[in-house]
Write a structure and sequence with these properties.
By secondary structure, the chain is an alpha+beta fold. It is built from 5 helices and 8 strands, in the order αααααββββββββ. The strands form 2 sheets. The chain has a 4-stranded antiparallel sheet, with helices on one face. Strand 7 (about 155-160) and strand 8 form a beta hairpin. The chain is globular.
Length: about 170
């Protein structure tokens, strides 16, 4: 079999394994891309208390990060991998200057995150996840742990019975 035939064979096999219900149409992705391009001022992607100037400290623009997150939602077939992937994308964008929290927002939680540079809510097969990039603060997961529900990075300490409270310090 030639290289071209092998490529199309693998592509066909890969596409056959992807459930169609999890895919986003090309027009919806294009629409998202257009919205994110319009939001390049970063105003609609920055949480309360943030500023467009502060978001400029990220390694990539907030609009680019949002688009990468949307693409990850479409591509991922495994929920823990999706959560870890969100965390990795946000950690890259934070450029070592900020902490990152990804959390299943359908679980109970308390948060006191300061100087939020970026926030976006995304859905994975109907499950809402929040992605925060911020300077410091506390986050308590009052539900189940594990990569299926949360992931975080930066400078932190865990406490509580099962380590469900995370205290973040300025990196």
């Amino acid at each position: 079999m030639n290289t071209k035939g092998l490529f199309f064979g693998l592509l066909t096999a890969t596409l056959a394994m992807i459930p169609l219900s999890g895919l986003t149409s090309a027009s919806a992705l294009e629409h998202d891309h257009q919205l994110m391009a319009q939001a390049n001022t970063k105003a609609n992607l920055i949480a309360r208390g943030g500023s467009a100037q502060a978001a400029g400290d990220l390694a990539i623009s907030a609009a680019q990060l949002g688009l990468q997150i949307n693409n990850l939602v479409v591509a991922s077939q495994n929920r823990p991998g999706f959560v870890k992937g969100l965390m990795e994308q946000a950690t890259f964008a934070a450029n070592g200057k900020y902490n990152v929290m990804v959390f299943n927002m359908s679980q109970p939680y308390e948060r006191n995150l300061r100087d939020v540079k970026f926030f976006k809510q995304v859905n994975y097969q109907g499950v809402p996840y929040g992605v925060w990039i911020f300077t410091d603060g506390n986050f308590t997961n009052k539900g189940d742990g594990g990569f299926i529900n949360w992931a975080f990075s930066g400078k932190f300490q865990r406490s509580g019975n099962q380590g469900h409270t995370v205290t973040f310090q300025k990196p």
